Amino acid sequence: MNGERQTMNYDDTNIFAKILRGELPSHRVYEDEAVIAFMDVMPQGTGHTLVVPKAGSRNLLDADPATLGPLFAAVRKIAQAVKKAFAADGVVVMQFNEPASGQTVFHLHVHVIPRFDGVPLKPHTGAMEKPEVLAANADKIRQALAG
Ligand code: 5GP
User: Fold this and answer.
1) Whose CA is nearest to atom 11 of ligand 1?
2) What is the 41 CA–ligand 1 centroid distance (Å)?
3) How far apart are the C-alpha atoms of 132 and 139, rounded to whole Å?
4) CB within 8 Å of 59: residues ≥ 6 apart
5) 111 catalytic residue (yes or no)
6) Which residue has a Cα nearest atom 17 of ligand 1?
7) Which candidate in 27, 48, 107, 109 is catalytic?
8) Residues 41-78: pLDDT tens digits?
9) How far apart are CA 137 and CA 139, in angstroms?
10) 40 CA to middle of ligand 1, Å?
């Protein structure tokens, strides 16, 4: 495999673009002028949240640098909120670029995952979580953001 795929264009039919446009549902926890954040449906741990810029890019490699400041300000806010919401010991922040890295949805996004001492992460895009669990976790994060 060569690097050809890295030159592929952004395609706004991806799942996160549809969530941004309100065409697909999500358990949304946060929105500002630059980003939205919602629960990952196949969480690698309790409270796994995705922070997604409204500006369209495939990933970090083709993103407008102006997107990144507001994106990471929101990532920090969500990381603080999930740590508080779940009394986590730490927080992982992850971001994948192109299929070789593990990227499966081609709209830039950052994973924010609470971590607990001695609890391993579940596999990436493993099992679907129950909607009621996602809804309850989203509530906790919204409360932490409000508090
Ligand atoms: P990537 O592999 O591109 O870094 O991560 C994509 C993430 O999106 C995965 O963790 C996967 O579980 C999550 N995901 C895939 N489809 C959906 C969906 O329809 N809704 C939500 N909320 N998350 C999704």
Assistant:
1) 125
2) 6
3) 11
4) 95, 96, 97, 98, 103, 106, 108
5) no
6) 41
7) 109
8) 999 999 999 999 999 999 999 999 999 999 999 999 99
9) 5
10) 6
Query: Ligand 1: which atom is nearest the Cα of residue 109?
Result: 4
Judged against a pLDDT cut of 60, whether residue 105 lies above it is answered with yes
- What is the Å distance from ligand 1's center to 145 Cα? 22
Q: Give yes or no for a contact between 55 and 68, defined as CB atoms under 8 angstroms apart.
A: no
Domain 28-117+124-146 has CATH 3.30.428.10: yes
- In DSSP terms, 140 is beta-bridged to none
Residue 83's φ and ψ, nearest 5 degrees, are -60, -45
5 against 12, higher pLDDT: 12
Task: Please identify, by atom number, the ligand 1 atom nearest to the C-alpha of residue 102.
Answer: 2
d(CA 90, CA 49): 14
- Among 146, 68, 78, which Cα is nearest to 112's? 78
Secondary structure of residue 31 in the 3-state scheme = strand
